[in-house]
Amino acid sequence: MSTVVLLLFTGLGLGALYFLVAAGLSLIYGLMGVLNFAHGAFLTLGAFTGWEIARRTGSDNWWTFLLSLLVGAVAGAVFAAFTEFVLIRRLYQRHIEQVLITVGLSLAAVALFDGIWGTDPVFIQGPAWFKETTEILGARIPNDRFICIIAAVLVLLALVFFLKNTRYGMIIRAGVENRSMVTALGIDVRKAFTLVFTIGGAAAGLGGVLASHYFGYVSPLLGGSLLIFAFIVTVIGGLGSLTGAAIAAVAVAVLQQFANFYLGGTGDFVVVLALALVLLFRPSGLLGRTS
């Protein structure tokens, strides 16, 4: 029983990280039609800037951790806004060019991170509480898993509230349904779309800081490794559906953990198999809009 509980909470923590990355992907593609392969770079930059805060302050207390979360989110947001404003804005409805330029940006970003921070993983320290465990039904759960879960839930609630109850949220949803009509009303949809990129980058940057504590290190390849599973989560959950992304993130991560433990480390294969089944029998995803 304790093993099942441990795997479940470990999967929930990993699923929280998948969701923080997939939330931005789902928003950017589902609302704007942009397939952003550079999204992992936003996460990696957030992780490195968060680590820099801890390194330069020379402390690993809660205040430093919270500051690193804020700085990591800001770094991801700024990088994402720059990417949309400089590179993507001129390429809407040109999907091949979008793929090429975002793939190129992701490769260039990894090379840049290699040059600044080196190619070797950088191991990090967090608040002492992160190193402790909490016993639940006989299982000793690392405390940092709870932080990831709480952060993902708060981000999901904040995004849903923003899209449904704020002026820009309504502009974004209206712009996706009928961009020309919204533009005819004198509303600049471009600013709203830049905001979508910024929000997605902030979520990814936040996820990068949390991922560095979850795995215990930061490396230039951290974002790319998580991006693969975030794409899977986005497709399974349904493009543009935040709730679907949240459900899929938990399902994928928990399935991955159980398969790795009970099926000889085949978690990645099982996840890809699940993706194939979804594409075959429900191409729109769990909560995606059917054509």
From TrEMBL:
InterPro entries: ABC_transp_permease, BCAA_transport_permease
PANTHER family xref list: ABC TRANSPORTER ATP-BINDING PROTEIN, BRANCHED-CHAIN AMINO ACID TRANSPORT SYSTEM PERMEASE PROTEIN LIVH
Main subcellular location of this protein, as a coarse class: membrane
This protein's name: ABC transporter permease
Domain of life according to the entry: Bacteria
Annotated compartments: Cell membrane
Transmembrane segments: 6-27, 34-51, 63-87, 99-124, 144-163, 192-215, 227-254, 261-281
Membrane topology (UniProt): Multi-pass membrane protein
GO molecular function, one term: transmembrane transporter activity
Keyword Transport listed: yes
Top-level taxonomy: Bacteria, Bacillati, Actinomycetota, Actinomycetes, Micrococcales
Gene Ontology biological-process entries: amino acid transport
Matching CDD domains: TM_PBP1_LivH_like
Keywords attached to this entry: Amino-acid transport, Cell membrane, Membrane, Transmembrane, Transmembrane helix, Transport
Family, similarity comment: Belongs to the binding-protein-dependent transport system permease family. LivHM subfamily.
Gene Ontology CC terms: plasma membrane
